[in-house]
Design brief:
Length: 168
Amino acid sequence: MPVYKRTATLIYPVLEPVIPIIDRWLKEDQERSKKQRHTARRVWIRLKEEHGFTGSESCVRRYVRGQRLVVPEVYIPLIYKPGQDAQIDWGEAKILMNGQEVKVQFFAIRPCYSGACFVAAYPTQKQEAFFDGHQKGFAFFGGVPGRNLYDNLKTAVQKVLSGRDRKE
């Protein structure tokens, strides 16, 4: 479905002189709790009272909404140094053992630099298997990476906190 995309930048002739003031207030709001931040209406009222602003409330609302929608660019670097990082996780697979299909848990370590992989199968994901997998994986690679990145492994992560924070 085609989506409209503005080609020219918005011009705010009446708002132009007070844009630095609005930007400063919105920047200061980042340090405040959400309840203490300016609404677009409050910005307009303050501009009228403190700076003699004569523009419309809708103009201020449109500008503030546009400023709040700006999302900072986020990226994950995909260039690693040898031995710097490794990803560690559990997986599950069905295998044929003695002619029967059996579900096994597999422990995997993958160094980010080389992309090589060490995998070991275990009957469960208990901590004994977790520690044994580390020991065998590090022996396989000939050392311990500088940083090990765990997903939400129950054996490594006690509690998932907000964002990327974990209590390991």
